[in-house]
Amino acid sequence: xxxxxxxxxxxxxxxxxxxxxxxxxxxxxxxxxxxxxxxxxxxxxxxxxxxxxxxxxxxxxxxxxxxxxxxxxxxxxxxxxxxxxxxxxxxxxxxxxxxxxxxxxxxxxxxxxxxxxxxxxxxxxxxxxxxxxxxxxxxxxxxxxxxxxxxxxxxxxxxxxxxxxxxxxxxxxxxxxxxxxxxxxxxxxxxxxxxxxxxxxxxxxxxxxxxxxxxxxxxxxxxxxxxxxxxxxxxxxxxxxxxxxxxxxxxxxxxxxxxxxxxxxxxxxxxxxxxxxxxxxxxxxxxxxxxxxxxxxxxxxxxxxxxxxxxxxxxxxxxxxxxxxxxxxxxxxxxxxxxxxxxxxxxxxxxxxxxxxxxxxxxxxxxxxxxxxxxxxxxxxxxxxxxxxxxxxxxxxxxxxxxx
Amino acid sequence: xxxxxxxxxxxxxxxxxxxxxxxxxxxxxxxxxxxxxxxxxxxxxxxxxxxxxxxxxxxxxxxxxxxxxxxxxxxxxxxxxxxxxxxxxxxxxxxxxxxxxxxxxxxxxxxxxxxxxxxxxxxxxxxxxxxxxxxxxxxxxxxxxxxxxxxxxxxxxxxxxxxxxxxxxxxxxxxxxxxxxxxxxxxxxxxxxxxxxxxxxxxxxxxxxxxxxxxxxxxxxxxxxxxxxxxxxxxxxxxxxxxxxxxxxxxxxxxxxxxxxxxxxxxxxxxxxxxxxxxxxxxxxxxxxxxxxxxxxxxxxxxxxxxxxxxxxxxxxxxxxxxxxxxxxxxxxxxxxxxxxxxxxxxxxxxxxxxxxxxxxxxxxxxxxxxxxxxxxxxxxxxxxxxxxxxxxxxxxxxxxxxx
Lengths: 404, 404
Fold this sequence. Notes:
Strand content of chain A: 25-35%
Number of strands of chain A: 15
CATH superfamily of the largest domain in chain A: L-amino peptidase D-ALA esterase/amidase
Structural class of chain A: alpha+beta
CATH class of the largest domain in chain A: Alpha Beta
Number of helices of chain A: 11
CATH architecture of the largest domain in chain A: 4-Layer Sandwich
Number of domains of chain A: 2
Order of helices and strands of chain A: EEEHEHEHHEEEHEHEHHHEEEHEEH
Oligomer: homodimer
Radius of gyration of chain A: 21 Å
Largest sheet of chain A: 9 strands, mixed
């Protein structure tokens, strides 16, 4: 049903994008301002960080899309507009300048910002950069993706084709996120575009449900950013009958959205600051889904598990330990643990106690780039997956002198 | 009132100790079995990890001191007796063997264990080691302290003299703990001895109250161990009238206990795995104490704050971020932040927004070994202190190949 296609956020009809270097960053080779534009009015929905310290752009965006409509997304990197006395003013100025250049309403702009917190954001480079940003709009999802990156080492971009009511629709997304990642409700910066016709109410419903299983299940370092945001714009140019209630069409849309978000989740986790490996903790047999999520998240967040995975050390006792302090209702006497990668699968713990296993085979499995930690709780049908990465020297290096 | 003295757990009258290498560890220069012995019956109290995965020795100890009495503490390092099918049996055998050698009741033994989780603990080296362990009992707090260390780089030992009802009493403690430290209710391994006469009920009361402000306020890495335990033995040989209710005597005892525990907390945090610095987060102006604790703990647990402190980077935005996701009721517009060390104090954030400050002076302050992060919430009288350490390359190194 779903087919992966090229084009990122420009795969869907009527969406163009661009990214430029406007001067927020000193490094002139690094784009620091990104734009996504829809030629038609789009339904808009977003979810935001639950950190009490919120970036000013989130407040402005929430206000702007209260009517469920948007036309454009603008985002700068290099300096987060957070904990600044004039933050709201700068975010609103950004929207106004962009709206002028695009000849749209300033209230139809989604604005976002990422980078160091607490340094005032100067409007000058943004104002100077907007004309070139707008003039260069095209099928440049890759440039927009580059413009939102901070410590990311890889762009995170994906698109799929799917069918709703006999009409071919497209959905694509870009994301940034590498550190300060432990989303709660919303997460990082993720911008999704689709030409599927969906009411803003159903779009919001689809997104809220989706993030619970996708972005809220990633953790890089346990720190929930002040600037997390996931937004979706749906401009309806695919020509399907507008989705305004639950049913087969809504399910098809949700499946496509989930394909985009799950892909981006895995990319974000694998590109965690300093990471050498993607960790996927798959919990099954929980008494319910909430329990499975709590356990999966606890394992993926454990510094000791993460460091062991970096060392390809099958130290499963640390996994039991993380399950034990998760705060979930688990019978530790029933827990089984195994490791899996492309090299194979190896059980290491049965019924809460160690079993004999080959350290050599375990090592070979754990030396791979993508590791699954399989936890079976033996207590029901609940299951969940959480994504994370290993803890490495480079995480410390990156964060020991981020500002210098 | 309180006077620091020598002697650790042997400072109090009637307590002797020892530590030997019995063979659990391959490295013969590292002691791996420790003993503390009271010549008189002692009131005993302990608090334990809240991890659902609990080391078998904790279960046995809880059962043994249910009557509020104990005579001896035995602890091995190198291999935690946790997640082993025969764990209870091994822990009970250990108590029985020791009781035989000391001619005491096996139910009067506090037993503990630390090291790798999930590898069966062989009773053979323990059985072989006990005769020498008992034969060598003396004023050897230092040897016992060495016998409980794992990745600790420094022994953690302290003693004080204090007065209760005109009688001079002594209290001393040893501790181990460097990784998997994020206590909840109880923590790490801490053994305290005193010759003050205290009923077991009042001893339990004093200890439970104390850990809330001491060990529960440390975090090295957010991982709550399966083997955490703090125990206190009080043998009454100081000759004071037994403390069996609240009042001036109880307060004097609690103050002495707190002097021991606070000292050990700071030592444990400063010796966190790979740590180069002690971090103390002091929160004031909270609406209540619980809020202050939640905020202080969140700051001290943030990987990003910890990495910034390693880099001596005054990146206060990460502190605001950690306050914002703490889950506490805080008005972020009222938050002030400053850094302090022996080199001076520098305010970096006022009313939730950045202020101008000298990066050079901040750097000089943050290059010290003991850093205070001062957070003022401007919202009431609640205050709390939490202890932690920086996140360094060596933390990753130590935990990337702990078992090899």
